[in-house]
């Protein structure tokens, strides 16, 4: 493999001149530039990203640790993060934890050893990243998305899930529904707990009772929504409407209603959460709480880059405001 010294020798210039031509960080005459360019082409030389990162003390890479899920929300979010990285001249190294604590910490150690310039964490709260590993690499800026597993200097970006659950349930109340159930995510997750509390808050404010069995704990996945809706349909007095803690569970609930011969919204109204791309193509299109996934990814990268540039700045906590998107799964 050709080196910069080989290029310099063939072009008859110094290695520093070759570096200036490649990096375009200093004026080099057109004639010399042509010689260096020709030598690079002849030798099929490729600059070493490792050497450059050692020299500049940065790799232009950002690591992201995420828990695997069939929920399309995460893939849409990662797409926004990757696009934002590309637009800002960074590469994204994505590690999937598969919900396994050992794998999560091994991936975390690997990302740190690869000297990523910054780190995004979007993992389950059941298994928290090793605080020991995080403390071993204190110079790596970190942005937590949705929740912060421990106190520290990491920035936090989160959805206002309490307000979102309230808005979703209030929409059903405003449409005249009084028997309203809730399909929650796993209650070891902060967003799931807050969305459930938002549902309860709206029901209390309207003076509506929540009968026993109207709150079903799911898992934020398609299958969890399917099973939870089957449980609600088996209730002696099934609800007229349901707030699903995310769109993935709402999709599963649609299938359970279809198999039971029920129609949406005539027999059961549904409001979801996340506004995944699939939501608008459901039959009928799903009313849901919009989370701006592309904007969330862009915001996470911008906050992280800002933290990398100013590591001593005060910790940032950014909360996004949920918005209701009304479609066809609730009656007019």
From TrEMBL:
SMART domains: HTH_LACI (SM00354). Residues 2-56 form the HTH lacI-type domain. The keyword Protease does not apply. InterPro entries: HTH_LacI (IPR000843), LacI/GalR-like_sensor (IPR046335), Lambda_DNA-bd_dom_sf (IPR010982), Peripla_BP_I (IPR028082), PurR_sensor_dom (IPR057343). SUPFAM superfamilies: lambda repressor-like DNA-binding domains, Periplasmic binding protein-like I. The keyword Acetylation does not apply. It holds the Pfam family Peripla_BP_3. CDD domains: HTH_LacI, PBP1_PurR. Keywords: DNA-binding, Repressor, Transcription, Transcription regulation. GO terms for molecular function: DNA-binding transcription factor activity; transcription cis-regulatory region binding. NCBIfam families: PRK10423.1. This is Ribose operon repressor. It comes from Superficieibacter electus.
